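Long-time lurker. I teach an intro course on protein structure, and each term I like to show students one example going from raw sequence to a predicted 3D structure in token notation. This year I'd like something fresh instead of my usual example. Would anyone be willing to generate the tokens for the chain below so I can use it in lecture? Attribution to the forum is fine with me.
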Amino acid sequence: MQLHDLKPNAGSTHKRKRIGRGNSSGQGTYAGRGQNGQGSRSGGTKGAGFEGGQTPLAMRLPKLPGFKNPRRIEFAPVNVSRLEEKFEDGAVVDGAALKAAGIIKNEFEPVKVLGNGEITKKLTVKVDKVSASAQAKIEAAGGKVELPC
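-- Reply from a regular --
Happy to contribute to a lecture. Here you go:
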């Protein structure tokens, strides 16, 4: 047996369908496309990315790079150096006090105290978040941090 003796098993191959070659070909008149409709037209297929009339994914996605999380909470940053210069010794630092001192614009916006700078005054800080370095500096100066639960 040699390569030129090889042939497929009987019944395992099919004759190629020759479309559009006249009525006697077995695919005549409409060439297997039917009479009317999208499938009968040339180029009549749904494009790549067609999702059945639903707005395609490529149109639903944002057009510019990046992603803005609508549920992200933006904290107003306040450094301990600002607390040092704006508040007296023994003061309570909360949203209303920060607004009165002119550090934040709205007393109800979330605030995070950051550890940039030094602090020597005993302050009671009642804000939404405090960084670890800021908490260490406030407590080293004799103050305390009260976070909401």
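Some talking points for your students: The first helix runs from residue 57 to 60. The two ends are 84 Å apart (CA to CA).
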